[in-house]
Amino acid sequence: MQISHPSRRSVLQAGGAAGLAAALGLTASGPATAAPAKAGSTEITDLGPAVVQFSLMSSLLVGDIAYIGSRNLDPVRIVAFHVPTGKVVGETVVATGYSIQTLAADPAGRYLYAGVLQKSGGPQPNLYRWDLATLSAPATPIGQIGDRDVRDLSVSPDGRLYAVGGGNPGAPALWEYNPATGQVSNLGIPDAGATLARAVAATDATVFFGAGSTLNGGGSAGRACLYAYSRATQTFAQVTPAEMLADPSIRELAILGDKLLVGSAASTQQSKIALLDLANPSSYAVATSIGKTAKNFTNIGDQVYFANETGLCTFSPATNSIAQLTLNGPSLGEIWGVDARNNRILATSGYGFVAEIDPGTGTMVVTDLGEAGASATPQTVMGIAAGAGYAYVGGNGVIARHSLATGGVANLNAPGEAKDAVIVGGVLYTGQYSSQGIWTYDPLSGQPIHQAADFPGAQNRPLDVCWDEVNRLVLVAAQSDTEGGGSFWTYNPATGAKQCFINPIDNRQLLRAVATRDGVAFLGGGLPTLDGAGTVVAFDPAAGRELWRLDAGSGAGLAALAVQGRNLYGLTRKGGLFVLDIPTRKVVHRADISSLSYGFGALVANRGVIYGVSDTNVFRFDPKSFEVSTVLADTDGGWYSGSHITNDENGYLYTMRGRNLVRIDDHPRKP
């Protein structure tokens, strides 16, 4: 993240220059006045937990209780929300992973199964079972599927548990847990081209496996695939509806009487819903849905309800028609659970609330889970931006706004995740995952945060945002998870004009970084693996054309770019550093800094020096010798999807130490 030069707006926002100077000297408990730092000194101020909100990723109604799996919280937990009273009546902690994306109950409603997402594989369990007879008893581990992440679970009528997921280098498998023996078995890999399985549904005779390549798509990665696994013959049969073959992935499966409901995740087109005959899957009907995803099926009588990225839809199997449900209430954001109770729809929102909705009128009763008793703890975070009296930190479904004057924190609900952001004239602009484009928030306007510009849905993951002072443009580097490659976005806040340049490097390299100098944008690319090559492209954002390109020669793809003076600094995912003299287009320095940075690091120019951050360290480069030195070690940064560092107009740096936001006032000793 990067901040623009301060404008009159940003000075007034903090109450003038004196007010802003006072505001920037706070501690975690509130404002304080810090003495001027001396050369050779570094002062660290802890600003407290960066993002605090009960964050969730799954929900399942069993009887009158909605069981809700946490996302990005430590420890991982499941809360039991009693719908009639609107209170949390139980909670259990899960010992491994960082999120729970899927829950399933046995036919009798006695046990709740949970599968976790993990940052790394290993021998630890990723399947758990909670005895619902007494909510005071903890969930217990029952085993491990060989795939790192558990994305979906289904229990057959005879009590077998089936699981799918991914996260390993190879294709995902179908897994079975037998509660009678306690064994977890690999039933095979149906599709070698798939990179992620997100849907499973089981009957006593057949298990349906839905997969594709929602992550790491493009190239030779497979598209949507649906397989029927015969429990009698232990064989797979391909039953993907022809109309879904071009979609990136099968997103959802559910049994509806003698039919199988299938929802796809789309990319360049609309998602779809198919209704297959369980006895003869080749007999089906397909309807084009609304939006890019169709997930979380439930039914009230003959009507099916499900979630897309903008709310709820209704599907009539009798007429094979789909309509968006008109809702009278707050935005539901990203929906992680849709159930039916007493002829009402129960929707669990990623914003941390449960809504009971009358499908006839669209009216809703909303219960905040934090107020209901769910414990909110600090999240790991995405992007950070600071300036004009505030620091903003992106979390799951929320952006936390820290007042640098009072220490107070306000949560701004925003769909998805603010992967990166920039402040221009006191106004925040975010790159919003997934497929949400650019969002904006002006604290002086009185308006809520909202979308400023949309871009093609396949360009779903904006990773780096900066401000082009010469062209007065917000610049964004984005990657396409489903199609491969990426795009370069420009947005003019004054006019609302936008441009999107797809695959400006090539059709394989993802765009991971953007920096700017004198009206020229520098784009950094790389492949999904650490072994992918990285290219730097100089691009004219106003004319929309490439000026020149350079193979960085790093062999690992770019993690970050930043400009200081005439030099472009590049950091690779393997911890390589290169410095490019922009006027001569020659690399003038290379170094291995993998002892300080490995993976998704970040860079920022501040006080005439380039600073960097990784999961473990904050570091700086000498502007003459390019020698690297540590500013803050052992940070154990609480990052969700790669580290970030930003600065404000006074030259203070902001990043993470643990799950707390910290401010760094660094004054390196001059040689």
Describe this structure in words.
The protein is built from three helices and 58 strands. It has 671 residues and is an all-beta fold. The radius of gyration is 25 Å and the shape is globular. Strands 1, 33, 34, 35, 36, 37, 38 and 39 form an eight-stranded mixed sheet that branches. The N terminus is likely disordered. It folds into two domains: 326 residues, Methylamine Dehydrogenase, Chain H; 144 residues, Kelch-type beta propeller (Neuraminidase, 6 Propeller), CATH 2.120.10.
Concise summary:
The protein is mainly β and 671 residues long. The protein is 3% helix and 52% strand. It has two domains: 2-30 and 45-51 and 378-667, Methylamine Dehydrogenase, Chain H; 145-288, Kelch-type beta propeller (Neuraminidase, 6 Propeller).
Draw up the topology in text.
Elements: E1 2-3, H1 8-13, H2 16-23, E2 26-27, E3 30-31, E4 41-49, E5 56-62, E6 65-70, E7 76-82, E8 87-94, E9 99-105, E10 111-117, E11 127-131, E12 140-143, E13 149-155, E14 161-166, E15 174-178, E16 183-188, E17 196-202, E18 206-212, E19 225-230, E20 235-238, E21 249-256, E22 259-265, E23 272-277, E24 284-288, E25 295-300, E26 303-308, E27 311-316, E28 321-324, E29 335-341, E30 344-349, E31 353-357, E32 364-368, H3 369-372, E33 384-387, E34 390-394, E35 396-403, E36 409-424, E37 427-433, E38 437-441, E39 450-453, E40 461-468, E41 473-479, E42 486-491, E43 498-502, E44 510-517, E45 520-526, E46 535-540, E47 545-551, E48 558-564, E49 567-572, E50 576-581, E51 586-592, E52 602-606, E53 609-613, E54 618-621, E55 628-632, E56 646-647, E57 653-657, E58 660-667
Parallel strand pairs: 1-36
Antiparallel strand pairs: 2-3, 4-58, 5-6, 6-7, 7-8, 9-10, 10-11, 11-12, 13-14, 14-15, 15-16, 17-18, 18-19, 19-20, 21-22, 22-23, 23-24, 25-26, 26-27, 27-28, 29-30, 30-31, 31-32, 33-34, 34-35, 35-36, 36-37, 37-38, 38-39, 40-41, 41-42, 42-43, 44-45, 45-46, 46-47, 48-49, 49-50, 50-51, 52-53, 53-54, ...
